[in-house]
Structures are given as C-alpha cells and as structure tokens.
Amino acid sequence: MTHYPHQDLRLPHIHSFSISKQKASSRHDRFFRLPTTIAQNDPVLRPLYNVISLVLDDHPYPSTREKFHRRTYEIQQNVRDLNLSPVKQKFLHRLITETSVTLVDLWQGSHVVTLDHGHLYNTWSQSSSAHPRFSSHYRDVPLQQYGINFRDHQLLFGKTSLRGSTWFQMEAHGFDPNDIFDDPDLIINHGQDFLKYRVHQMNVGPFGFSPHTEMKNPIIRPYEPLHTKRKRKHKRFLTD
Description:
The protein is about 40% helix and about 15% strand. The protein is of the alpha+beta class. The protein has a domain at about 85-240. Strand 4 and strand 5 form a beta hairpin.
C-alpha cells in the first residue's frame, strides 16, 4: 500500500497563509523570464517556443509576504471576472471559511488535505454539481473521486483513505474521458496542464502554479464547520 507523506500527520502550526520560503530554482526562473522576442525570432528556438510559451503566462507561487498579498488581490479580481453563480460563490465562501485555505492556495492549485474525517467529501459528493472523476491521485483508495466545475476550471476532490480526510485541489482544466465527445479541446487543455506540471514539478491551478502537491508538502488544514465558527464568534461578542 502506498504511504502518503501527509498520512497520520498531526495538524501543523497554522498561520493565516502558508508561504514557501524556498526560492524558485534557477531552472524555474529561466522559464518565467525567457526572452520571448529572441525565442520567436531564432529559427532554432522557434519550435521550442511553441512548447515553452505554455508556461510563460502563468504566475509562480509567491515567495514573500508582500507578493502573497499582491497575488491575493489579483486573484480576487480574476474570480470576479469568472462571474460565478450565487450558488458557486456561496460554495467557495463556505469552503474557504471552514478550511481556512487561502485564495492563492485554492486558485493556484495547491493540494489541500482538511482534517475533517471525510465530512466535506460526504457532503460535496451528494451535490448535484459533483460528477464522477478519476485521476492519478490516491490510486489505492477504492473510493469514487468527483469534480465540481467553476466555468472552465474544476475542483477535484476525494479522500486520503476509506476513513481518512477530504483532499481537494482546483485544476486549471478538469478532464473526464466521458466529456471528450462534447468538448474535444479538453484533451489539448489538460495535456498542456500536464506539460506544465512536468516542466515545473508543480501543480497547475487556474491562476498559477503551486509547489504544494500530493506527494510534496501538501497544505494541511483544520476543519471547523461554519455553524461552530458562528457560535464561537457570537460567544466572543457577548463576552466583550
């Protein structure tokens, strides 16, 4: 049985957000700062540019507090531009409130495990918006995985084990072979995302990259139901 690095872990000290202090490697810097003009005009580099250009417009994971705050603001604007339905907006608000995941981690595709004994999985999988998915994640866990669409993007989720925690990550483009007939571009879009993942060894979210993958430094979050938070907030208000 595969052992995942975050199984049996206790909840780490949680800050309001998690920032990887390790700077991006020079290999990543070269891809993000590649002189595109030279690449487009050079007859040798031009064929490679068609591949490398797939990663040029994406945002690296913020490495400082200042960059994290700036990226959060940018993502807020991007989410507004999606013009999501009130139902989807309410879903995301509750997800963020109950798991304390940041906008950066959610929309840049971080792999998140929430210590909820599978409660969110059980709830989300019953939603009419959830449809069956399969993926390479947690292959030895005999449970159906699901996806919930947010325009062209998709929240993929499952459980770490039969009695484990809910995990989720927002994907730039969800992929289900059953949908190929309706939208053949899914193969191209998901293939591009996979290429980006192979190049950077980072998850590919709708609005950028994340070094927090399933097998490497996943985000571990506590779970606190919305009604519990409201009671605690009300109690604090009465005692102030």
